[in-house]
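Data deposition worksheet. Section B asks for the primary sequence of the deposited chain exactly as it was used as input, without tags or linkers unless they were present during the calculation. Section C holds the resulting structure in token form. Section D is free text for depositor observations; keep each observation to a single sentence. Incomplete worksheets are returned to the depositor.
Section A, Depositor: J.P.
Section B:
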Amino acid sequence: MRRALVLLAAVLLLMGGARPAWAQQPDTTGPTARGQGDGQVALTDWPASLSGLLDEMGRKAPYLLPKIDSLALDYRYAADDSTSQWSFVLGWQPGSRVLYEGEVLPGRRAPAGIRMANVELRADVVADGEYVGDLIVAVDSMALAPIPSIYSFEVTVGHERLLLDASGAAARRALLEGARLENLVVERMGFVSDAASTSERRRPPDARERRSEPRRGPSVYTPSTRIFIGWRMAPRPYYVDDRDGTRTVRPRRETMGRGATGQEGAPRRTAGRGDTEKSGGEARGRGTRSSSDDDDEEDDEDDDTSLRLPALGAAAAVGLVAYAGGTVGLYGRGDTPFGLAAGYTRPGGGIHLQAAVNGAVIEGDDDQKLTVKALGFYDVFSSPIQPAAGLGVQIDPARDRDVAPSVSLGLAGNVGRIVLFGGVDLVQETPEIGLTYNFRHGRDRSTNGDPTP
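Section C:
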């Protein structure tokens, strides 16, 4: 009953005086008019169990994740032949429990000042009762307190990159027919609070830096129940950033700018509303930065956590091994799906170097990961299906410990020139797959099946 009342209050608030200007104007066309539509899609009681999530994720669980009683995304769009203009209003209400630094706590013991720092939501787009495709709405950086605070933003997006798994023509047709959003799903959600970390709380008072709010990165939760092989190869969703006090509209895989440079390829900024809207005339844009010094400092922090240079180094190492060993191919896993593999391969076994990154490294986003591992396989049963084991590391700056071990077990199908590997990382608990080609197969018979070159 309490959850229903909270959700009802959120809906009434978003539909009432706190909604942006377009929501207060009379709608003469109606939501089903050709090329226009509006509505609301909501999420309640998420996640289902914080205790279950903690048991499942273990040390990989986020350090801060409040249970969400209700989250509402209000939307309105208008479409033409090539683009659609979307307006959104986002609001959320916490539940009575919170996951904080490995413990599930009641709300009264939750850290103060919890705010949503980033979010990535996925919804089904339905037109005329038929599913059309998936729409992703994401905000890279904000500081959204619970309702009555809300976050409103606008974007313009081309039909060809509106949906993840549908063509531009299908998206245009759906919008002109009158589309609606359904089945809201969390792809990523990050939170920050005013509380210091455990290590900072344990320091002597005179050892702490004097600042009003400790610098600590957002606690980001990314569900790991599904594996998207090549998912990001679909049309690119749009992202919004509010880091410097203006809304930056950028497609994924493009560099995020911080000022209006006017250069070709620079992100386009939408004009209009202020930042996070708060009731009672309170200050807006909490958590945004405007000074050049803060921006420079933020750039330095981003550079410190970027894995692009280590990833390029790993790719170069794989290239050298491919040249020396004669085997090269692709490698990926659930948490780092984009990678390469190379090494020595003989009928009796082989040794491969594997390196892979996640999409955040390619796109320059947060939550970057790099996995590097040596994999060996050997003909134990006089069969082309050979046991395989790997040992390496995974680098993840977002974790408390940047480097974690990576231990894999699996099978390698060593068939002629082709080696197909499938296995599981026992530490990260994610599946792995690899496909390599031995372009020196049959040239060297001196080893008689010995995998050692």
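Section D:
Residues 2-305 form one domain.
The chain has two domains: 2-305, 308-438.
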